[in-house]
């Protein structure tokens, strides 16, 4: 019988908190929070005026960040952290400033130090605004310890160092 690694927290409550997408200390960021729903990760985001591209519409880079970040939490459910190695996105509907978006991600496969994921962002009416697939390179404990060396709380959260 194989034991599953202990789950890591999906949200950053450490001494770091500066990630553009999920950092609670990054006032200019998205400040996303995540929940696990079965074998998926879910987050919501309200399209802000300061994140627009064309007048009245959310910038595609923000939608990309939303998709990337929700997919990055899929390995976390298995006790691992990963960095994006490949990201494929299809934009289906424009997103208006003020829209409340729901992003959902799941694992599609992988092996060894690679995990494949997929995600979608839906509009309030249920239509898919964007969808993506990604490949994540799973990080070693040494790589995580190196990244967290100036943040002891983050190292403890990541259980390294």
Structure description:
By secondary structure, this protein is an alpha+beta fold. The protein has three helices and six strands. It has a six-stranded antiparallel β-sheet, with helices on one face. The protein is globular and about 45 Å long.
Placed side by side, the strands forming the largest sheet appear as: 1-2-4-5-6-3
The radius of gyration is 16 Å
Main beta sheet:
6 strands, antiparallel
Order of helices and strands: EEHEEEEHH
Our count of helices gives: 3
Tell me the span between the first and last alpha carbons.
Answer: 28 Å
Tell me, rounded to a whole number, the average pLDDT.
94
Strand content: 25-35%
List the uncertain runs.
none
Shape call: globular
**Percentage of helical residues?**
10-25%
Number of strands: 6
Structural class: alpha+beta
